[in-house]
Amino acid sequence: MPKMLIFDIWGRYAHYKKIYATTSALSYIIPSKTALYGYVGAILGLEKFDNAYLDAFLPGACRLGIQVVNPIVMQRVNTNLHPHDKGLIKASQNRKPTTMEYVYSPKYRIFFTHRDKALFEELEVHLKNHTAVYTPTLGLANLLSDFQWAGTVEIEEKQLAQPRTIEVESAIPREAFVRFDLAPKIGNEIVEYSQFAVEVNTSREVTQRTDVLIDRNGKPIRVQVYFYHTFQQNGTEHNIVLF
Hints:
2 helices
């Protein structure tokens, strides 16, 4: 069976802008798959110039899953933006007051696979030793992040001819989803994002998108799905979807 890394990332604030915007006031509640490419690239010290780190994440090379650990709390903070020039704002320059939206005290569990065994093992060493070449952040450069290895497990993919009802602990891409099972009173608070960035090239052009479903309180979602992934950890079976 293929192996999967599990690690947690967290910080005081996170802000995940729309990928096609230089700056956006609103934030997604979870990182996109492409944002996590940057996070892993920072830990590994992959080349940033001309977005060369994205060469390590060609379509199909990496599959990820995202689970909310801390319930999502959003905060709006008034921020003075400096849209024109780089560097510090001078007294003579105009500010651009903007109300920015942040995820407050976020924590996510990341499920990571990669077909490059050397890259996978290098990331595993960094996670276990709690080391990183560059400082990882949660979306913006000033939103510093900590991380912790949570395990390396064997994972099995289930491809089904008929949909099966299970409880999924991670975000669910639309292509796996069939319908919700509304019988159990789990009390989900589901957020759906359309056109979520899944793959991107070195010109930062999104080459693949999908819709995703996520519970903002981190509760499992009971759904019917056509495919999912399962693994055992500490004697417990877990169901997630990688995309």
